[in-house]
Design a protein that fits this description.
globular, 131 residues, mainly alpha, 4 helices
Length: 131
């Protein structure tokens, strides 16, 4: 087989899939990531113990094939965190809220926070990919 040109793989999820498969893995990365740090506003504006989102609550945009109703946001990482000052501010706010044990669960779909992918899938069995 010819060598893979990494520059031909436009998306990080695709690259992670190819790398996993090259190593013999079978997992497929889900489209469950944040488009940017500003989406963390959903966590920072949530009241302690909140189950429902009240600020910046949209899902990741739908796509016809895999996520026709939109994709969940999983607050484990952020894409395009290129402003160090803004990133530092978000991290400090998240740490402060975490220290007070007032962060909502880390997964958000359709305006609701979930503790696990399984919990989210129990309410939305049509989801094709969970964490």
């Amino acid at each position: 087989m010819s060598a893979l040109r990494v520059t031909d793989i436009p998306e990080d999820e695709d690259l992670l899939n190819v790398a996993t498969w090259e190593e013999g893995g079978t997992k497929q990365w889900c489209k469950l990531d944040l488009p940017g740090p500003d989406d963390f506003a959903a966590l920072l504006h949530a009241e302690p113990g909140a189950k429902r989102c009240t600020w910046s609550c949209g899902d990741i945009s739908p796509d016809r094939r895999f996520h026709p109703r939109g994709a969940a946001k999983a607050f484990y990482t952020a894409h395009h965190a290129v402003d160090p000052i803004a990133s530092k501010r978000y991290v400090a706010q998240l740490k402060e809220k975490d220290a007070k044990n007032s962060l909502p669960p880390p997964i958000m779909y359709r305006g609701i926070f979930y503790k696990t992918g399984q919990e989210m899938m129990a309410e939305h069995p049509d989801i094709k990919c969970i964490i």
